[in-house]
Amino acid sequence: MSANTSTVTEFILVGFSHLINFQGLLFSLFLTVYLLTVAGNLLIVVLVSTDAALQSPMYFFLRILSALEIGYTSVTVPLLLHHLLTGRRHIPRSGCALQMFFFLFFGATECCLLAAMAYNRYAAICKPLRYPLLLSYQACLLLAGTAWACGAMVGLGHTSFIFSLPFCGPNAIPHFFCEIQPVLQLVCGDTSLNELQIILAAALIILCPFGLILGSYWRILATIFQIPSAAGRRKAFSTCSSHLIVVSLFYGTAIFIYIRPKASYDPASDPLLSLFYAVVTPILNPIIYSLRNTDVKAALKRTIQKMGPTEI
Fold first, then answer.
1. Of 168, 200, 170, which is closest to residue 182 (Cα–Cα)?
2. Which is a Gene Ontology cellular component entry for this protein (predicted)?
3. H, E, C per residue of 33-73
4. Which of 89, 193, 228, 234 is deepest in the core (most CB within 10 A)?
């Protein structure tokens, strides 16, 4: 902190510093989870990029989702590992702003991408004859590009807005990364209007895609129940179940974290909840999509067979 201006130039990420006797254990745990997350999602990216049987809109979006998850977790976990290993928890103001931008960028992009994936399932089940037109390669690129653009606008808008406010008091962030709510608590003066603006913006970027997802699945369920055969209904349900699990995990925690007043922030429990959507969810996605998806498992088997001389 500068002595002559009393303006905060760096922050301290408190994180899990209170668990003094468990720093080594936490480092090993988070390192393992991070490596598995990157390996699992990278495997999906490679499979979809190289296997001819996975060249469909569904896997086009899945590849982007896996890439997002790698970026999403890489924004927070490596710095957390550094803090656990060295005990140095300082982060410059510019570094905190950069971390917040990329975390919001990847998170908001995923919000929009999950809505695009729901639309893909709606078109496949409810509009099968028009599906090739509705989800052409150009349409997929447009949906993905829109998701990336929305993510960039949300990240840039929130970050520039928050870091244009004055920080002149305490600089300890009760979190393991530069999350919006705990950083906003360090702003000088009354932030009630700023808080309202952030909540409204978060509601827009979270609830609008979530509403589109709910609408898509309402139509999907109505169509599925009209399928006469039980086998047909099971197949239709199976194509949606993985996406529904991911949506429930991601949106459940995001709605609780972001669409609420600052006064309800709990420095003791909220970092643990943030671990769920920032660390746990990214490692679950490749597990969910690989174990519950016969096409991905078949592609993995073909890749292993190409790499080795013996048949699996």
1. 170
2. plasma membrane
3. HHHHHHHHHHHHHHHHHHCHHHCCHHHHHHHHHHHHHHHHH
4. 89
Q: Determine the length of the chain.
A: 312
Please tell me the distance from the alpha carbon of residue 109 to that of residue 26, in angstroms, as a whole number: 29
**Backbone dihedral angles phi then psi of residue 92, each to the nearest 5 degrees:** -65, 155
Sheet order of strands, 172-173 included: 90-92, 10-13, 172-173
Residue 64 vs residues 51, 79, 140, 224, 301: alpha-carbon distances, Å: 15, 24, 11, 27, 22
Over residues 87-100, the pLDDT tens digits come to 888 999 999 999 99
CATH at 195? 1.20.1070.10
User: pLDDT per residue over 252-302, tens digit each?
Assistant: 888 777 776 666 666 667 777 788 878 888 888 888 877 667 788 888 888
Give me the number of domains the chain comprises. Answer: 1
Task: Kindly state whether residue 312 falls inside one of the protein's structural domains.
Answer: no
CA distance 63 to 296: 11
Q: 3 lies in a domain? A: no
Distance between CA atoms of 117 and 251, rounded to whole angstroms?
14
41 falls within a domain:
yes
Whether 85 maps to a domain, the answer reads yes
Residue 283's domain comprises 10-307
Report d(CA 207, CA 78) in Å as an integer: 30
DSSP, collapsed to helix, strand or coil, labels residue 168 as coil
For residue 89, what are its two tokens?
Answer: 């928890």
Residue pointed to by tokens 């790499």: 307
